[in-house]
Amino acid sequence: MNGKYVVSVIRALRLTNFSQCKGAASSFTVRHYASPPKRFYKKTSVASGDSGYEVVLDHRKLKTPKGTPFIVRSEPLAIAVATEFDAQKENIERSRMHLSALCFTAIDNPNHLSKLDMVNYLLNFIATDTVLFQYDDEKDLQDLQVNEWDPVIAWFNQRYDTNLQKTMNITPPQVSEQDKMNVAKHFQSYSLETLHGFIFAVDTLKSIVLACAVIEQMLTVEKAVALARLEEEYQLKFWGRVEWAHDLSQQELQARLAAAVLFVHLNCSENLVKQKIIL
Amino acid sequence: MAGTKVLRSLLHELRQASPNGCIKDSLAARYILAQYKKFATTEQQFCKARNEATFLGQTYLTYLASQRRYLELYKEYHGRGERSVRDTADLVGFKLPSDPK
């Protein structure tokens, strides 16, 4: 009698144990990613309307993520977006379509930013600009920074009539009210959409000086990215270059910056013409 | 002759980016060629900044080329989940029981 009882208890224990194991197995989480949308169109083209240029996928008009129709004022920009959509293979990889993403952001303005917000954001960036923080403990690195960064800072000061000074330690550089006013005046002259491009460029390079230099054609895109990664490139010489980290980030930054520069230029060709007359 | 070089590389990148490898009826290629014809003698005539057209061409070239190289690296190194038994065996130089001796 006692033996039978023991056996049944053991069996019950085993059962509960088993069900617990099963419970643990089912609660083991599998991460599900949203699969990218399939390429649902064959041909992309551009249609011109009264208010601007639209991108057409087969016979459907392209819309932004918010649902508003995609309309841009510049023809080359629309063509570039159409080409980007045409370059997608089986899936639409939206995270890699920087130019389209930038256009969508400018049209939708998802954060409801006003021009003042964006100019303030750009002005606040000056005090944390990459090229203004230099390092004098290591001779070679300092030489590199003086040779590569200082001419760009000098160009910026001359172009925007400012007096930015680099800093050699952790204290942020002094930016006077007059400097801020001069830079703000320049950014205020751009339209809201164009400022989205500026912010994208500044966020990519972590430097407003370099972003302005590349947008004003003082530097090429590759050179600007190389300058933004100057210290990384310097350290690579000692520690080795890892393709899946360094090369990947370099190519990504180049693509992002090129998208921002194209966006700004194609959006404000009238602006540049006016500047030329003033000069 | 920097312009010609940029044009050739741009068309090359566009060909690589297009899904069927043909840019005969590509909008971008047609637009770029039209721009090149327009600025064939000089690009100063429309009161643009100096060398603006060439700069834009180069920037677009950087955009296309960087994206292509990024995708190549991504495909090479991004994780594809767990290796199969055969892949692991190939990795360490073993043979599967089903393989011929």
TrEMBL record, chain A:
GO terms for cellular component: mitochondrion. Keywords: Chaperone, Mitochondrion, Transit peptide. It is found in: Mitochondrion. The keyword Transit peptide applies. The keyword Glycoprotein does not apply. Pfam families: ATP12. One of its GO terms (biological process) is proton-transporting ATP synthase complex assembly. Its main location: mitochondrion. SUPFAM superfamilies: ATP12-like. InterPro entries: ATP12_ATP_synth-F1-assembly, ATP12_ATP_synth-F1-assembly_N, ATP12_ortho_dom_sf. Belongs to the ATP12 family. This is GM08665p. It comes from Drosophila melanogaster (Fruit fly). The lineage of its organism: Eukaryota, Metazoa, Ecdysozoa, Arthropoda, Hexapoda.
Automatic annotation (TrEMBL), chain B:
It holds the Pfam family Complex1_LYR_2. InterPro entries: FMC1_homologue. GO terms for cellular component: mitochondrial matrix; mitochondrion. One of its GO terms (biological process) is mitochondrial proton-transporting ATP synthase complex assembly. Belongs to the FMC1 family. This is Protein FMC1 homolog. It comes from Drosophila melanogaster.
